[in-house]
Amino acid sequence: MDKQRTKVRNYFSPVPVVLFLGALCTASVGLACEGERQIRTFQEIEGELQEIDLGGDMPGNILFRCPSSVGDSTLLQLRNFLSSLAGTIDQQRRLRRAGQTGYPTHGAASGDSIGDYGRLSTFASADYNNVDRSRTTLGQGLTQDSFSFTWGADYRLRDTLFLGGTLNLLSSDTDIDDNLGSTDVNTIVMGFHGSQYWQNDLFLDWLATLSYSDLDIDRTDLAGSYKASTDAWHWSAELSFGHQLSVNRWRITPIARLFYMRGQLDGYTERVVSQFGDPEVADKQSHNLTMFDLSLQTDYVLLANWGVVIPSFKLAYERDFSGTSSSSGRVLTTQETLHIFYSGETDDPDRNTVMARLGVSAQFQRGLSAFINYQHLLGHDYFDRYHIGAGIRYEIPLGFAGF
User: Fold this and answer.
1) How far is CA 396 from the centre of its chain?
2) Which of 181, 224, 283, 299 supports an S-S bond with 219, CB 3.0-4.6 Å?
């Protein structure tokens, strides 16, 4: 065993003692997580791996690394975007349909202004998401800025049935606190949606998506700097069931929504971009997310000579049924017979949160409408998030291009 320990110490001998002490001191002031990843070390002896205890020989830059935030960066981007995509699609169509069938109109808000246009509609929107995650025992603190653009269309098969699709482009930049790295994620999402309405003002909305993400990863510790690239695939499905209640110019809409997302982040190997360092080989990660929410939206109609203005407020209770996610891999060493493996889990999700949204939409003449929304996450244990979105919708007139 003494011989084995000597081999291990020889591997770490180029690492300065100052680096190790600096890692311990930095961890105590908050550069690393309060908890540690699970580290297991093995020595290859006569072709077999035997677990060993490095004790004080383990460098602090390995011992005190937090569980990877790369998977969190991808999930944050997709979850925040998809949570608002269905609402962006359905809100405009629903308010447009309400303007045609349920609201009082006069002046420019009547007749061909908001009236019976064609079966085909096209729409576009742009969104900005900001997320601030506090550092916890099992997770790094981070800030994410995300931008997205959506273009889509839907077709009214009959007065109560709509089908359509969207093309969505997402780009986000996630910065880890204390200058410990960043992750840039670019994602393309294909979406397919539909809505069914009934005469008693009940409705059912559905949305299915398939997404591909490209990630560029930068990481820094006290030993060096590293870069990596990888990919991720996700798919999601959701159903929303609601009822529109009209009282004069008020419209109150309770909605129940079930959302599920599943996907995988491919493994990757870091490369050292500094003079020294201990790069990692990360294993692939599986992602599962299940959400249920109950919301209540209130709209009020204001009539104008040029159309209709509809301010709205929505409050949603969100329940997260997901479990924790985990990351694992190994640290590359200069000694081929030494193997260092790590694993770590993320924090338990905050099961109960509230989302508040305030917005206004406008119905103009000749089939044109527009909206702007602001929403904020309330009551989360370690996330702060707000979202701003704006978009337009155009209904192609009857008889145009055969529609």
Assistant:
1) 33
2) 181
Distance (Å, whole) CA 194 – CA 261: 18
Q: Report DSSP state, residue 314.
A: E
The whole-number pLDDT of residue 101 equals 46
Euclidean distance between CA atoms 1 and 306, whole angstroms: 86
- Answer whether 324's CB lies under 8 Å from 35's CB: no
CB count within 10 Å of CB 248 equals 9
Q: Which residue, chain included where needed, has tokens 């699970």?
A: 38
**329's tokens:** 């891999």
Q: Taking the CA of residue 34 as centre, how many other CA atoms within 13 Å lie in the half-sphere pointing to its CB?
A: 8
**Backbone phi, psi, residue 8, to 5°:** -65, -45
Q: What residues in the chain have per-residue pLDDT under 50?
A: 1-31, 101-115, 401
CB-hemisphere CA count at 13 Å for 190? Answer: 3
End-to-end CA distance of the chain: 81
Question: What are the residues whose beta carbons fall under 8 Å from the beta carbon of 325, sequence distance 6 or more?
Answer: 71, 75, 285, 286, 287, 345, 346
Residue 388 near residue 128, CB atoms below 8 Å: yes
Sign of CA dihedral 111, 116, 122, 128: positive
Record the tokens describing residue 2, joined without a space.
């003494």
Give pLDDT tens digits for 226-281.
999 999 999 999 999 999 998 999 999 999 999 999 999 999 999 999 888 889 99
Q: Cα angle at 27 between 24 and 33, to 5 degrees?
A: 140
Do residues 140 and 177 make contact, with C-beta atoms less than 8 angstroms apart? yes
The length of the chain, given as a count of residues: 403
pLDDT at 62: 61
